[in-house]
Design brief:
This protein is α/β, with parallel strands linked by helices. It is built from 15 helices and 18 strands.
């Protein structure tokens, strides 16, 4: 594949102009060059960017968009979300995930990191659409040994299924829910499976003050200290939210090589607090970006998430110089690739060909005094999405699935869930 005459190409070092990108198979062969390929995409009116990486989400929760607003986290969960989740099954999760993947791809996401239920069905949906994904069964045991064994069994099943039954685009993760509702034994076993499978360990960390208080009361230490003492924190660890942290906790995270996923919209909606992202970056923590699920966001638009992440830090610090656009764009791209240990999130030779073409004729891109500023603060219209070297969306229409069928079926299921 040859992407020809792109008006702009966003690389880690600079914005290139009027450049070609050569794709061979699933990887970028070169930035520059003009070898004739089987497929040519002429792109003089487009900016070519790395696909965005949504580092923390729950795809099937698209079925719950808008069912519960204006509640604090515990009430939101106990009164609305958990009862609905009890009605989920594999078929419903499949259609909810398909719906989410349409939304992701249309807004520029090419890779997602998911923690939820019925993950083999979510993987089927991801394979069908052509998106890249990291998937883990969300585990919690509340100290119940029988439930712990059941959760670990399901995790092992999902790991085995993903490793043998799907394309290389889909990889397993190990996903205990959080420190306050997972036993030490479950966390230990999660770490062991993560090491055995060389898979990321993805969990929620210090999202709410209540979580911190419960762990401090039971374990006598802050959750970050607790996880560090258990040996969970390393370069494979991905902690979602990271809201309630002080400098010492940031230093622990930085020294361990762990990554944190900032979810500003979800944290704001549930009033969980403001993650100290600017301070974490100063301490050397690898911070990435995620949307969380559509029930607490309520969309999966990573361009919007990027804007809010930057602006939230500025107002939090009363300092407009905090979180420059050059820092902000690293969160869903370079930093995400580092967290996953994958060659994604950058347009470089040898990296996976996960690319999006943004329409420069869109009104939000004009005038174009600064491409990066427009992308972070104005948003973008994504025309084409290439994942693993394959065009999965062209002219803002997905190429591998029937969008209308999926939207109608997901809406039907969502109504059924609410009406029961």
């Amino acid at each position: 594949m040859l992407i020809k005459n792109a008006r702009f190409v966003l690389t880690p070092d600079k914005v290139l102009e009027n450049e070609n990108i050569v794709v061979k198979g699933s990887h970028i062969e070169s930035v520059g060059g003009s070898n004739k390929k089987d497929e040519v995409i002429d792109a003089p009116g487009y900016a070519v960017l790395p696909g965005l990486v949504n580092m923390h989400t729950h795809a099937s929760m698209n079925l719950f968009r808008g069912v519960s607003d204006d509640k604090e986290l515990q009430s939101w969960l106990e009164e609305d979300i958990w009862p609905l989740e009890e009605k989920l099954d594999g078929e419903k999760s499949y259609w909810g995930a398909l719906h989410a993947f349409i939304e992701m791809i249309k807004t520029g996401t090419t890779c997602f990191n998911d923690m939820y239920f019925f993950m083999d069905k979510v993987a089927e949906a991801a394979d069908e659409v052509g998106i890249r994904g990291y998937l883990g069964h969300g585990m919690l045991d509340l100290g119940n040994e029988e439930k712990m064994e059941k959760e670990l069994k399901e995790t092992r099943r999902i790991v085995k299924t993903l490793n043998k039954g799907f394309s290389n685009r889909l990889k397993p993760t190990v996903t205990p829910h959080s420190a306050e509702i997972c036993s030490e034994d479950l966390l230990f076993e999660s770490k062991r499976i993560s090491e055995e499978e060389k898979a990321p360990l993805h969990m929620h960390i210090v999202e709410t003050e209540k979580e911190v208080e419960e762990v401090v009361e039971e374990k006598g230490m802050h959750p970050i200290e607790y996880l560090d003492n258990l040996g969970l924190l390393d370069e494979k660890f991905i902690g979602a939210h990271g809201v309630h942290l002080d400098r010492e906790h940031m230093k622990i995270l930085a020294e361990s090589g762990a990554s944190v996923v900032h979810n500003p919209c979800s944290n704001m909606k549930l009033a969980s607090g403001i993650s100290p992202v600017a301070d974490m970056l100063k301490e050397g923590v690898n911070v990435t970006l995620g949307t969380d699920g559509a029930a607490s966001n309520n969309n999966l638009n990573m361009f919007e998430e990027m804007k809010i992440a930057g602006l939230l830090q500025k107002v939090h610090h009363s300092d407009p110089t905090v979180m420059s656009v050059d820092e902000t764009v690293k969160l869903p791209w370079e930093n995400a690739g580092r967290a996953l240990g994958e060659k994604i999130g950058a347009i470089k030779k040898g990296y996976l060909a996960d690319l999006i073409l943004v329409d420069l004729d869109d009104v939000r891109m004009k005038p174009n005094h600064n491409l990066t500023s427009n992308l972070v603060y104005s948003g973008a219209k994504v025309d084409t999405s290439i994942i693993d070297g394959e065009v999965v969306m062209k002219d803002n229409k997905l190429t591998k699935v029937d969008e209308e069928k999926i939207k109608n079926k997901a809406e039907e299921i969502a109504e059924e869930l609410i009406s029961k």
